Amino acid sequence: MRIYILLLSAFLLLNGCNSQDESSEKTKDDNYKVTTVKNSTIKETDRLTGKQVANRLTQIAASIPLVNDATAVVIGKYAIVGIDIDDDIERSQVGTIKYSVGEALQNDPYGANAIIVADPDLNERIREVSRDIQNGKPVRGILNELSDITSRIIPEIPGDFNQPAPSKTIENQKKSLNKHNQEQLKREQKKHSTSE
């Protein structure tokens, strides 16, 4: 009788383990589902080279009235466009011309992130950088020159500053003044209490 109970227990144990293994296999299979992707074809986009974009931006800038010539340098999605205008044009009119060039470039997808320069010195430096790029000069020197030009145009970028908030500074000053005033008040109170 003991043998029958032992065999029955072993049979139930093995049978229980088998059914548990089958159920775990089913759940594992259920976890892996096939996903189909729609529209997975690669679409060709019309991307221009930096030289082509520079030529395009130069043509757009030169087409604006009172702009004699233009030069552009493109690095990635950013561009610096130098415009050549007459020396006898007033400063306020120069700003208007730069604004007109900016509007024309903003309508072009490649000119949206362009910086416009009307300074003759910077325009000549941009022209030199453009020649260096066409002649295959080392990129490091070109990028250093472009960073110098950009730093003259935009000397400080507001987003890069980590200044303490003025309200915190004022609050800290108030706290320190209050502590000082409190100590002085305590001293005066002690004087008055001992003198009575």
TrEMBL record:
GO terms for biological process: sporulation resulting in formation of a cellular spore. Keywords: Lipoprotein, Signal. Residues 1-19 form the signal peptide. Residues 156-196 are annotated as: Disordered. Pfam families: Spore_YhcN_YlaJ. It comes from the Bacteria. Residues 180-196 have a biased composition (Basic and acidic residues). InterPro entries: Spore_lipoprot_YhcN/YlaJ, Spore_lipoprot_YhcN/YlaJ-like. NCBIfam families: spore_YhcN_YlaJ. This is YhcN/YlaJ family sporulation lipoprotein.
